[in-house]
Amino acid sequence: MMRQKAKPAKLCEHIKDDGKVCRSPAMRKQSCCFFHSEQRRREKRMAYARLTAKLRKDVRSETERLAERILKSPVFKNLMIKCLADGHLEDTLGIKAEAPATCDSEGVGVGNQQLEK
Q1: For the CA atoms of 63, 68, 73, 76, what is the dihedral angle to 10 degrees?
Q2: Of 3-7, 21-25, 107-111, minimum mean pLDDT range
Q3: Strand, helix or coil at 3?
Q4: Are 58 and 46 in contact (CB under 8 A)?
Q5: Is 33 buried (19+), middle (13-18) or exposed (0-12) by CB count in 10 A?
Q6: Which of 48-52, 72-76, 89-93 has the lowest mean pLDDT?
Q7: End-to-end Cα spacing for the chain
Q8: Which pTM value belongs to this model?
Q9: Helices 74-86 and 34-71: crossing angle, nearest 10°?
Q10: Cα separation, 103 vs 27, whole angstroms
Q11: C-beta of residue 69 within 8 angstroms of C-beta of residue 45
């Protein structure tokens, strides 16, 4: 009976900080050993987390800037107050109408009756 030689094990292709190749046995169907496969997975997860955090921050700051511009508009303020008074926002956002009925030209809320001086 003739013995068959085992196939040579595929070696890890990771290059260490000192410039040398790892040369540990690679995992099946992968180019790296267990340790370096996990390390690469962690690095990818961290890079993805950093990217999504940056995107969230960019979207949040853009949304805040847009909201600031919109809220400075007296037309928008009057529209929001009308929607609040009509109860449109209560269903969708759960906001109760406790706002004045209209805004003056400076964007300050004024009720239906005259303010006492």
Answers
A1: 50
A2: 107-111
A3: coil
A4: no
A5: buried
A6: 89-93
A7: 112
A8: 0.43
A9: 100
A10: 69
A11: no
Q: What is the largest CA-CA distance in the chain?
A: 112
Among the listed residues 79, 65, 83, the one whose alpha carbon sits nearest the alpha carbon of residue 107? 79
Residue with tokens 């540990």: 24
Q: How many residues are recorded in the chain?
A: 117
Domain spans, the chain: 73-117
Q: What is the pLDDT of residues 62-88, one digit of tens each?
A: 878 877 887 788 888 788 778 777 776
Q: Which residue has the tokens 């449109």?
A: 88
Residue-level pLDDT at 43: 92
Please report how many Cα atoms fall inside a 13 Å half-sphere around the Cα of residue 69, on the Cβ side. 5
